[in-house]
Every structure is written in C-alpha cells, then in structure tokens.
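Bench log. Compound arrived from synthesis this morning; before running ITC I wanted a structural hypothesis for how magnesium ion sits in the protein. Inputs:
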Amino acid sequence: MKYFILFGPPGAGKGTQATAMVEKYNLRHISTGELLRKEIAAGSELGLKAKSLIDAGALVPDEIVEGMIESEFRTVKGVNGFLLDGFPRTAAQAEALDKMLSKTSEEVTSVVSIMIPDEMIRERIKHRASIEGRADDASDETITNRIKTYHGKTEPLVEYYKKKGKYSEIDGTGTIEEVREKIFALMDRF
Ligand code: AP5
Ligand code: MG
C-alpha cells in the first residue's frame, strides 16, 4: 500500500486537489476534517466533543484522529493506497502514524505539500464561506486561530519529513488546474 500525505495550511486546496488525485492513482481519500464534520452532523458523542474545538480553530485530541485513521486503514480494501488530508497535524500524530505503519512493515510513501501565503489562506477561506457554510470558516477569529495553530503545531512537520527525505513542496498559488498538473508530475514518480 502507498501512503501519501497531502499537506498544507488551511485553504491551500487539499480537499480540492484530493478528488482528482484519488481518481488518477486509485487511492482512498481520508480527510480527518471531513470525518469529524460527519460526526458533528450525526450528533455523536465524539462530534460533540470535537465541535467546540473545531469552531475555536483548535485541534481535537491526537487519540481521536489517530483512532479514525487506524480504523480506515483496517477496513478499506481494493485501492493502491491512501491519501491522508489533514493528518498528521502534530509531531505526536506523525509518530503515531509511523508506528501504525511499522506494524505491517510499511511506511509513509511521500508528503505532497501545497503551499500558499497566509493572506491567500484568508481569501480562499472567505470565498469558500460564501459557498459551503462551514462553521469554522465563519469568523475572522477562528480563521486567525487556525492559521496560528497551523504555524505552531503543524508546520514543524515539514522538518520532520524533510529529514526523512519524504517531503516535496508545490506552489499552491496558481489556478486549480496549474496546481493539479504540478501534483500529477510529482505523484507520477511514486
Ligand atoms: P480540515 O477540514 O482539515 O481543514 P483545514 O486544514 O483547515 O483545511 P481546509 O479544509 O480549510 O482547506 P483545504 O486545504 O482542504 O482547501 P480547499 O480545497 O477546501 O480541518 C478542520 C478542523 O478539524 C481543524 O481545524 C481541526 O480542528 C480538526 N482536525 C482535522 N484534522 C485534525 C487532526 N489531524 N488533528 C486534530 N484536529 C484535526 O480550498 C479552499 C477554497 O479555495 C475552496 O473554496 C476552493 O474552491 C478554493 N481553491 C482551492 N484551490 C484553489 C486555487 N488553486 N485557486 C483558487 N481557489 C482555490
Ligand atoms: Mg479540506
């Protein structure tokens, strides 16, 4: 199995690009954000726990998302691999992922990182807010906290994966099609 990590700040275009990537390379898309939003919509206990943290622009506890990922790995069959969108997001999650995969002598294949500057994060999220109505896109304060959380807790993973020689970065500021072509050119190598 291949394990790709689709990395990048909020609004970078991870969800947008994931659709074409999973189709072209026969991967299963796992977005922890989407899984959490489904739990919230279903009104589950886990969803209730996650809602206030997500609405504040904070991260939910590592154990919750790690459990979600492991259960997807166990149950999904018939694909060439997985595309992890929004996971890992902390050093602890990255280490937990390595540990999970080592049980079956597997490892992360590559990190595909989509980068955009902070100002573009705001523009993209505001644009999406007018279309999708995601609760965590609604207030400037939440968006600011998500950007802070990204720089403080998630960005350090760039070094983590660079050290392992698994990190590739793509300029995410072009059009959706331009970014997609760059991603495909990179993914074709794996
Ligand atoms: P999550 O759902 O992962 O949100 P995120 O990381 O903030 O990323 P987004 O989904 O906002 O952005 P995206 O990169 O997918 O951009 P998109 O393609 O939509 O997480 C939400 C919350 O859940 C977290 O804050 C946290 O609380 C919790 N959570 C999730 N995972 C967790 C974890 N592992 N640990 C702990 N907590 C976790 O694009 C954005 C907009 O831009 C769209 O409107 C799109 O149409 C547009 N767009 C995209 N590309 C382009 C382009 N090239 N040009 C112009 N517009 C574009
Ligand atoms: Mg997304």
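What the model suggests: Residues 14-15, 31, 33 surround magnesium ion (ligand 2) (CB under 6 Å). The two ends are 12 Å apart (CA to CA).
ITC booked for Thursday regardless.
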